[in-house]
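Support reply, case 0932

Customer input (verbatim):
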Amino acid sequence: MKKSIKKNKVVTYIIIGVIFIVSIILAFLFLLQKSDKDYIQQLDAISQVKTYENDSLFKEGQKIIEKIKDKQSATKQIINFYKSWANYTYNLGNVDSSIIIMQKAIEANPHDVVLFTKYGFYLFHSGKEDMAVANWKKAIELDSTFTQSYVNLITYYFRSKFNIDSLSYYVNMLKKLDPEYPISKVVADTLKHFKKLN
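Our regenerated output:
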């Protein structure tokens, strides 16, 4: 009987020891695992880079986004990353890549008026004017007070189609939105802005 009690104590100590060791290993592995906060900080840092040597930072950012479990809490950083990268590829002359990147940003937040406006800008510069107009109109649907979408549409109808009815409509909408907004300045600024096409 004494042997049986000793044997049970030994088994109990072994089980406790194994549980203790497994607990330590799990705690160590938990400490090694990065949290969403760490990934979000990394993504934010990548978004702040103004010049990229190659696609490696973009690929790294993509990997970080995949690792973030709660993407909703990181929406701002994800969008900033995509906007930064789209702007960079646009400045390199790769408008098609900018369009693809902005699509990913819109997937991350399909209610962001700035994303639709910027997406329309890239579409316009790639020759997809009808799609650009549709995205600027979508931006106005999302937020009818966002002036840049009106400015883009005014410029488009002034410069590309010279559609007096549409031009008048968006000029009047912009005047209603902000009576102090200098419409002549809008036309001058946007012509200067879109002059890059010629």
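We compared this against your earlier run and they match. Two observations from our side: The chain has a mean pLDDT of 76. The chain has ten helices and no strands. Please reopen the case if you see a mismatch on your end.
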